[in-house]
Sequence to fold (107 residues):
Amino acid sequence: MSESIIIALIGVGGAVIGSVATLAGNFFIHWLKNIDEKNKEKPARELLTEMLNHKEHKWRNLDILMHVIGANEETTKRLLLEVGARASEDGQCLWALKSRAPLNTGK
Fold:
């Protein structure tokens, strides 16, 4: 093999290794950010679960839930879904745990 072909192959190999290392690094950073985000939201999920399990309140108003955990509507709804809650079927901004307020199945 000629010297120029060997140099070209080394260059291509270096480019492939560099690309793989960059992709792996980006994936690792994204993974770490997701873990950090989940850990930051854990107290909010726990508080939502506690509020929705309260024996005197089966349904909770979305505005109150947002205020208590200090989050916007989109984040609060996402967290509510993560803890197993659902919105009311009558169009009101009320939420309850599915275990305490199952969907009407029409039976």
